[in-house]
Amino acid sequence: MEQRKLAFIGAGNMTRSLISGLIQAGYPADAIWAANPSREKLDSLAADFGIHITQDNAEAASRCEALVLAVKPQMMAAMLSPLVQSLGGFGDKLLISIAAGISLSRLEQMTGGHDKLVRTMPNTPSLLGLGMTGLHAKAHIDESDRRYCEQMMQCVGKTLWVSEEDGINQVIAAAGSAPAYFFLFMEAMAEHAEKQGFSAEQARLLIQQTALGAAHMVEANPQLSLAELRAQVTSKGGTTAEAIRSFQEQDLNKLVGQAMTAAVARARELEAQL
Ligand SMILES: NC(=O)C1=CN([C@@H]2O[C@H](COP(=O)(O)OP(=O)(O)OC[C@H]3O[C@@H](n4cnc5c(N)ncnc54)[C@H](OP(=O)(O)O)[C@@H]3O)[C@@H](O)[C@H]2O)C=CC1
Ligand SMILES: O=C(O)[C@@H]1CCC=N1
């Protein structure tokens, strides 16, 4: 991929995932900067990946052509305001936000009218190169900037462009927040398995291997619908049918739909607040 000078502002979990993926994909460490107020995460990024680090956001930003805005949504305005001041604007730099709940128009305001912006929504499996990232940009963002963002995110997983900005909020519900839904489901299964006499370690093994196997089955069989894969496990008059009947009696689909709707509602609420 194109190797622009790239700065990460905020050196938390998502930054670590992205830097790890970029380095593994052959992006030169010398072209990457990370900035963060506290030192510890920076030191460990420098030790692990050999990138440049600084506690001064303006230093990282001024040295780079592309910036990943990787602070918590609630910190974005407080981070950008002094940065805009000390740089006197972002010039021709490409700004890539990974934050939930901050719209492009709000980012434009926070950056003093800068409009070379791309919104992305990754998720934590990016840490393992198994991420899923949604991307959105307004029509004026050119092809090379789009390709650059897409290739960066493809270093840590798969990507999907959404044509409407609200699609990013739908990506949050279906992918950004979604690893936690699967963890919650696995927690519930593990808790029950433990109650039936398995040790915590045994319960985790049973459930993690099954979840992994199920995800691989989906990936390896694109010709089969999810319902068909489920049908393959569900023998007529058998055990699975009873478990599925029990889920459906509780209207699992409605429950899941409500949870995803709640995630989108919260993302929209943040967009209105921040
Ligand atoms: N976690 C997830 O599953 C996902 C998160 N996101 C988005 O990614 C973004 C980052 O999340 P995540 O990596 O999990 O969060 P983290 O809290 O792990 O990282 C945020 C980092 O920003 C640093 N920071 C705080 N203030 C500033 C500042 N003024 N200048 C520079 N750095 C600052 C913090 O430093 P310190 O700790 O030293 O205060 C921290 O290291 C969020 O906007 C979130 O919405 C998107 C998709 C998935
Ligand atoms: O929970 C959150 O707000 C962030 C965004 C998606 C995943 N974590």
- How many domains, as an integer? 2
Global Rg: 21 Å
CATH arch. level architecture of the largest domain: 3-Layer(aba) Sandwich
Largest sheet: spatial strand order: 3-2-1-4-5-6-7-8
List keywords for this structure.
single chain; 274 residues; alpha/beta; Rossmann fold; ProC C-terminal domain-like fold; 8-stranded mixed β-sheet; 12 helices; binds NADPH dihydro-nicotinamide-adenine-dinucleotide phosphate; binds (2S)-3,4-dihydro-2H-pyrrole-2-carboxylic acid; EC 1.5.1.2; amino-acid biosynthesis; cytoplasm; Pyrroline-5-carboxylate reductase
Description:
- The chain has twelve helices and eight strands.
- With 274 residues, the protein is α/β, with parallel strands linked by helices.
- It folds into two domains: 6-162, NAD(P)-binding Rossmann-like Domain (Rossmann fold), CATH 3.40.50; 178-271, ProC C-terminal domain-like (ProC C-terminal domain-like fold).
- Strands 3-2-1-4-5-6-7-8 form an eight-stranded mixed sheet, with helices on both faces.
- β5, α5 (104-110) and β6 form a beta-alpha-beta unit.
- α3 packs across α4 and α8 crosses α9 (200-220).
- The longest helix has 22 residues, at 252-273.
- The chain starts with 5 loop residues before the first strand and ends with a helix.
- NADPH dihydro-nicotinamide-adenine-dinucleotide phosphate binds next to α1 and α4.
How is the topology of this model organized?
Blueprint: E1 6-9, H1 13-24, E2 32-35, H2 40-49, E3 52-54, H3 57-63, E4 66-69, H4 76-87, E5 94-97, H5 104-110, E6 117-121, E7 131-137, H6 143-154, E8 157-161, H7 166-176, H8 178-195, H9 200-220, H10 226-233, H11 239-249, H12 252-273
Parallel strand pairs: 1-2, 1-4, 2-3, 4-5, 5-6, 7-8
Antiparallel strand pairs: 6-7
This protein binds NADPH dihydro-nicotinamide-adenine-dinucleotide phosphate and (2S)-3,4-dihydro-2H-pyrrole-2-carboxylic acid.
